[in-house]
Amino acid sequence: MRQGHLFHSDRLTALALLVPVVTYIVAFIGFPFVMSFVYSISDATIGDPHFSIIGMRNFREMLQDEAFRTSLANTFIFTFVSIGLVVVLAHILAELLIREFPGKWIARFLLMLPWTAPIALGAIGFLWFMDSVYSPFDWLLRKAGLLGHPGDLFGPMSNLYWLARPGLAMASVILVHVWRLLPLATVILIAGLNSIPREIVEAAQIDGAGYFRRLFHITLPLLFPVIGVTILFSVFFTFTDMTVVWILTKGGPPPHATQVLASLAFLKTIQGGDLAQGAAVALFFFPVLAGIAAIVLRLVKKAVVV
Amino acid sequence: MLKRIVKGCGFYGVLSLFIMFSAVPFYIMLITMFKRNHDLLDPNNNPFIFNEPPTLQHLDLLLHQTQYPVFLLNTLLVGVLVVLITVLLALPAAYSLARLAGGWGEMVGVGIFLTYLVPPTLLFIPLSRIVADLGLQNSLWALVLIYPTFTVPFCTWLLMGFFKSIPRDIEEQALIDGCSRLGAFFRILLPISVPGIITVIVFAFTLVVNEYIYALAFIQESGRKTIGIGLTTELIRGDVFYWGALMGGALLASIPVAILYTIFLDRIISGLNMGTGRQ
User: Fold this and answer.
1) What's the pTM?
2) Which of the listed residues A52, A189, A286, B14 has the most CB atoms within 10 Å of its CB?
3) Closest chain B residue to the Cα of A227, Cα to Cα
């Protein structure tokens, strides 16, 4: 009797405690999310509260738009190249950092800085590094005799103009993405490495398995889910990011050498006031995000079962 | 091969390369903020050392002739309010999901976590309409209202995991002793959960300082800007860069946030890891 009463009241309490959070999420994430689908097939603008549905015209126009096609391609290039570099570098760094050594806390603090410091502020540092006249990179190259004289490896000009040349601008944006994500990927991998039972590795070592055999037959398979999580979050943070691009190049050099979907959607929405076009561009995130969500769901289920 | 490289160059050699990669931009910020303009703006000078005696002129410019202190204050204000809202929303929800809701609590929890995956670069589009309808353009209140969209889902998830890790017996004992649910929550569970709540506070605050897109979209008036957009839009004007002040401003705001974040890093990451790869 008492048991039943407790259960009943608990259920009500449970619901009551969830109401604020669910209301907020529905109002400020759920509803807007649905609205972005609606806007993408409408002629909505920021200034005018009225809009009508115009069907797929936004998408048709977009697919013809050079800026959109470049942005889509750039987004994938940025994401894949960055992730590839991040995973390889993070694995090396994680192997270094699972050891104990004197001064580890300060090394860790410095290594984590790109992730723990606000990215907009970190990117400001790179603006100086990639400045067209004062770039410290260029200074190093000049001192090394690789830049600034006829016949030098990087050309006779005194500067490389990092952010003004299409190829180099892309490389710069990728460099800053890698710089920023490396610490995050590393700590996720370290958590994974720590969870591999030491006995298994030691047993394999005693049985005479070399480094490579241990890496490919024990460490990597056991690490696989964690590498998956690393890639998942890295993709999420690169694919949808515009801060790095915005601060370094604003999508330039013209017309759209480093433009990505996120920055293009921002240009259209905020600077053009065209909500509909902006929404149509940003909805191209959706397939990738849905994929990430599906994988997260599977991982969570597994974690719950285990 | 990995091992050979590591052995060949020496553990510390490889480690220093990584540290250089990570920390050099911050080192450059540090040195640039104290360099004389004459020293700074000569492309032949070594950019990594002082070629002339250091100066405090950039710091003076930053603190007294720009709105940098206002940016900091705005960020602090938004941060504190958002943290407050986040804790007030996430704490009861996490408790409910971890303790009271039973089987469907897991589902709702995952559902809330998944809303974290709706990125600001998508959400700012419909939200800019909502902000306009509410008349909140150029208002810090727009940020206070919107920022919990990225703090609440993850913080609810973190707190839920935290509550789950505390044995139920402790509360049940209190309930048997005649405590009410609410009493047990406030007197037993809350005091044990202080580390979890502090983690959430730190995490939410660092996310607020990190935020760039909403602030860029909704705030144009310079007196209302937060630190990220304030520095990049007010201290970079056309081709004129106040390099020393810019670097100093970025560094001074980064370091406290980075220190806070580093202290709580492991807890936040175990939340991201969702139990995979952990025992």
Assistant:
1) 0.88
2) A189
3) B277
